[in-house]
Specification:
23% of the residues lie in helices and 24% in strands. By secondary structure, it is an alpha+beta fold. The chain folds into three domains: 158 residues, no CATH class; 45 residues, no CATH class; 110 residues, no CATH class. It has a five-stranded mixed sheet, with no helix packed on it. Strands 2-9-5 form a three-stranded antiparallel sheet, with no helix packed on it. A three-stranded antiparallel sheet has the order 6-7-8, with no helix packed on it. β16 and β17 form a beta hairpin. It is elongated, with a radius of gyration of 24 Å. It binds zinc ion. The site of zinc ion has 8 residues, from loops.
């Protein structure tokens, strides 16, 4: 069993099999944080943009609030300004003492809370004191730098948790913090309800783990996720259903596809009501006329597949979607009629 956490989170009602012991353990085994990825700022810091690193690790330093509290074993949700990007456990924490960092301050009041303006002159404006200026005061400070690695347990969200939904899990009201405390037990419940299956803590962190940035073949890990994420139709389905195959249940994002209940070319429209998230093999069988769904949302398997246990056991099961999910039953019925006519 992969999902060990239960309870519903937000609008999500998917409830994996209950395992009370795991929930209790997860709730006490460490802290939980959300890390803010500040896109532009981070792009200046390294050669590679943060996009290449977001699924692997997060860097921060001792000027950031809560920096001391993050520990190995903690749960982390990485967020940008719009949504939560994914989740993992801190497997290793690199600590680099005595690093030099440039910090800019307002020359009038000394605040760091000023913003660069794109059109107006002077170039910077300080909101605390209201002054505008062209050149900030730059100082060199000593910091301790940290890098939290979580790539071995990382699970992408791909659109199933937005900013507001993550904010509900937050333990602090402040929106300013880069590292924010979140409720560990409620976070685990919320992601489980979205079909996100974390490995058990410690399960995925092998000794002497390397931190590869590239997959065999030279592709960076993020590339595929970005490509999937750009598919608006799939994103809309993930947002609605979580990372859950409508026929087989939670599945890794890598094998979840957006299925059109009626051939896309026939309509050239993407209506969410005419789509379901399906595991890749299930999607292929559905498109190939070997699986159908009745109007009552019950799965029907072609007789020719019944020798395959992993598929025959799906026969007669009910679609794993929320009771209130709006699916176009007429389109489902149409597909069912056309498909089963060939059996
Ligand atoms: Zn100022």
């Amino acid at each position: 069993m992969c999902c060990s956490e239960v309870r519903s989170g937000g609008n999500f009602t998917y409830a994996p099999a209950m395992d009370g012991v795991d929930i209790a353990a997860a709730a006490v085994n460490g802290g939980a944080w959300s890390f803010l990825i500040a896109g532009e700022e981070r792009q200046f810091q390294g050669n590679a943009g943060y996009e290449d690193m977001v699924e692997e690790s997060y860097s921060y330093d001792s000027t950031v609030g809560n920096h001391r509290r993050v520990a190995v074993g903690d749960l982390v949700v990485v967020r940008n300004g719009r949504e939560a990007l994914g989740i993992g456990y801190v497997e290793e924490l690199e600590v680099l003492p005595d690093q030099q960092k440039l910090r800019s301050r307002c020359p009038h009041c000394g605040s760091t809370g000023f913003k660069e303006r794109t059109t107006e002159q002077p170039r910077y404006r300080c909101s605390p004191c209201g002054n505008a200026f062209d050149r900030p005061k730059v100082e060199t400070i000593q910091v301790t730098a940290y890098r939290a690695h979580y790539g071995g347990t990382w699970q992408p969200f791909e659109g199933c948790m937005d900013k507001a939904q993550l904010a509900e899990l937050s333990l602090s009201k402040s929106d300013q913090q880069s590292i924010k405390a979140i409720d560990r037990a409620r976070t685990l419940a919320a992601v489980a309800a979205r079909g996100v299956c974390l490995p058990r803590q410690g399960q995925a962190s092998g000794a002497a783990r390397q931190y590869p940035l590239e997959l065999p073949g030279g592709r960076r890990r993020m590339t595929a996720a970005v490509r999937r994420g750009q598919d608006a139709f799939r994103r809309a389905l993930v947002r609605r259903y979580g990372l859950i195959c409508a026929i087989t249940g939670p599945a890794p994002a890598e094998v979840l596809e957006a299925a059109h209940l009626r051939p896309f070319a026939a309509t050239e429209r993407h209506r969410v009501e005419e789509g379901l998230l399906l595991r890749a093999d299930i999607h292929r069988l559905f498109d190939g006329g070997l699986l159908a769904i009745s109007r009552e949302l019950v799965v029907c398997v072609a007789p020719s597949l019944l020798g395959h246990v992993s598929y025959s056991e799906l026969e007669g099961t009910t679609l794993q979607i929320p009771v209130d999910a709006v699916v176009d039953r007429d389109v489902i019925k149409e597909h069912h009629a056309v498909t089963t006519a060939t059996w």
